[in-house]
Amino acid sequence: MLAQQIVNAISLGGVYALFALGFTLIFGVLNVVNLAHGAVFMIGAYAALKAVVVLQLPLPVAILVAMLVTGAVGWLLEKFIFAPLRARQAPHLAPMIATIGVAITVTSLIEGTFGSENLRFPAEVLPAEILSMGGGAQITWLELEIIVLAFALMAILLWGLRKTGAGRALRGLAESPKAAALMGVNVEAFFRVTSILAALLGGAAGVLIALYANAVFPHMGQPMLHKGIAVVILGGMGDIRGALLGGFFLGFAEVLSVAYIGSNMRDAIAFGLLFIVLLLRPQGLFGHVAQRRA
Amino acid sequence: MEWLDSFWATYNTLVLSIGTNVLLALSIYLTLATGLLTVANAAFMGIGAYTAGLLTTQLGMPLIVALILGSLLPAVVALAIGRPTLRLSGVYLAMATLAFGEVVRILILNAEGLTGGALGLNGIPQLTQWFDVALAVVLTLVVLLRLARSRIGRTMAAICQDEIATEIMGLNVRAYKLFVFVSGGALAGLAGGLNAHFTFFISPNEYGFERAVDILAMGVLGGTGSPWGAVIGGLLITLLPELLRGLGHYRPLINGIILILIILYSPKGIWNLFRPVSESTRLPAAP
Question: Is A257 touching B (CB cutoff 8 A)?
């Protein structure tokens, strides 16, 4: 029983972490609380679904399509929302409110176009074999693929940030845009890249959750956004490793509370936890010192 | 007067909604004008609505008592959570109040014995008359307009401009913040109580994130330079969806686009467009 819960927690936590990574990346580098990240996540799910159902593409290709689409959305966000507000040096609440506007706009566009009902992936594209693991735990191919993909994307991102020149430049930018600019970093280009990268990760998380629950609907981004916020605050805002740990922390907290307390209090636990953390440790559970406290 | 009767029969809910939405917009005006981005007003509205609704349906109390208690309880809750929460600033405060709002919604949802859970609270007597709402709006507006010109209003603007400088001037910034947060909570609770007594039915999801965003949109759209901004915001955000009924699912689109356009092109809200230039340069508004 416990082994099974751990498997569930890892796959759920992996997706939460993936979603939170994009959110925290935008906060760390652009210093923007992107409340449209949930909408981007939802677009990713719809893009993959349409790629499978309408274009008849195989699932892995559909995931790539979804990431391309959401990457483009990230670019648009940067170009039309973040960049103009940055140029005007608007207070940091301005992009936050503008992205709420984006989320409402995008959600109602999708709802108007595809309807508000719950759409599903056709059963034949979902790998359904069940693998038995030790201790009576089972894992489906789908869960395994979700775990592998989530971890692979996170590993690539972490490796890129640590080991490549671009990653170092990006981390420098997060510390101080001015200093990075003086060191010859093309700041605007990196802002653009960050926004695209974050949206792409959000889109991938959207596909994975859509596959996990086999449900795609216009408002799916909103609960996820709330969870992403919880994760990022648990881990410390703008902290990459914190987002990873926070994602798994929330995954475990949810799965265990469903298993041992009851499913209806699942969300209350996530937000109760978040509320308490904010009051007692605003730098996050795992954070050292928040460098970008507002 | 026949046309008036038929107009009223068709549109009374809309007119009353305008009133309660203006109250909600005024409730967030208080915190926004102080430079605080709190999004707990929907939760306070919910607490007020459930308190007032339960008092009239279960205990048969008169509306006025229910309304008073329905705005007192959210104020007490605001006082309790305000002390620790208001230490946070900027986005952290927004996130904390967002989390608080979700906790309240989920608690209402799960306290089935008291609140009816997801099924909501049914059969609330329709006690709210148009003059109740009008009186509440006018009184609140008069008080807030006086407040804006008073020492308190000027301190709110000062905190919004520069919190540390205000503190150095010897003003008790924390007390002022707590004051606007608590009075905003009471006002939102009052709006909730009034609203519950003409919609007949309330459910926890009415007081979730979407309502919080709606309230925020009203405050930002109108502008936080003056209580009149909140009036404009409440009016527009209530009327627009009605005027755009033909759009179906696309209706929220307009709210979204308005929010984006306002932030991009007129960050101080619509009210700011009407103000004389000298005044708007002298007193820049939040956020």
Answer: no
How many domains does chain A divide into? 1
ipTM: 0.78
Domain that holds residue A136: 15-219
Parallel, antiparallel or unpaired: strands A138-140 and A130-132: antiparallel
In a domain, A172, yes or no: yes
How many C-beta atoms lie closer than 10 Å to residue A279's C-beta?
17
At A271, which amino acid appears?
F
Chain B residues 76-135 with a CB less than 8 Å from chain A = 84-85, 88-92, 94-96, 98-100, 102-103, 106-107, 109-110
Block residue for tokens 């060191």: A183
Examine residue A46 and state whether it is found in any structural domain, yes or no: yes
Q: Map out the domains of chain B as residue ranges.
A: 11-207
Whether residue A294 lies within 8 A of chain B, CB to CB, comes out as yes
Check the CA dihedral B1-B244-A225-A118 and report its sign: positive
**Tens-digit pLDDT profile for chain B (287 aa)?**
677 777 777 777 888 889 899 999 999 999 988 888 888 999 999 999 999 999 998 888 888 888 999 999 999 999 998 888 888 877 778 888 888 888 888 888 888 778 887 788 888 888 878 888 888 899 999 999 998 889 888 888 888 888 888 888 888 889 999 999 999 999 999 999 999 888 888 888 888 888 888 888 888 888 878 889 889 888 888 888 777 777 766 777 877 888 888 888 877 777 776 665 444 444 444 44
